[in-house]
Design goal:
Elements: H1 4-8, E1 15-18, E2 24-28, E3 34-39, E4 45-50, E5 55-60, E6 66-71, E7 76-78, E8 89-92, E9 95-98
Antiparallel strand pairs: 1-2, 2-3, 3-4, 4-5, 5-6, 6-7, 8-9
């Protein structure tokens, strides 16, 4: 499979593509090594992948704090808030119950 630079016939390296915010979203060397990145609306990098098969993805909360990270090696750091069912009402056979976390 051809790289982006090969498809475009690029001869000058390193080859870079940036998004409208100036973030580098694609990088390629003359040897065919490439990497690509994705960014969220706040400019935080949320995805990375390279030609060696490595990838990593991240998630951020509304304050910009990283709350989740995982990569292709199987490593995961998960600091997302737990969603509790504490206090929720469920109905079973017509009878209502209020949940309590144990």
């Amino acid at each position: 499979m051809k790289t982006i630079a090969q498809q475009l016939g690029i001869k000058e390296f390193p080859f870079r593509i940036k998004d409208k915010n100036g973030n580098e979203i694609y990088f390629e060397t003359s040897l065919g090594y490439w990497s690509k990145r994705e960014f969220d609306s706040n400019g935080k990098q949320i995805y990375y992948e390279n030609s060696d098969g490595y990838w990593a993805k991240r998630k951020f909360d509304s304050n910009g704090k990283e709350i989740y990270w995982e990569n292709s090696d199987g490593k995961v750091i998960d600091n997302r808030p737990n969603s509790s069912c504490e206090g929720k009402i469920v109905e079973i056979d017509g009878k209502k119950y209020k949940l309590t976390e144990v």
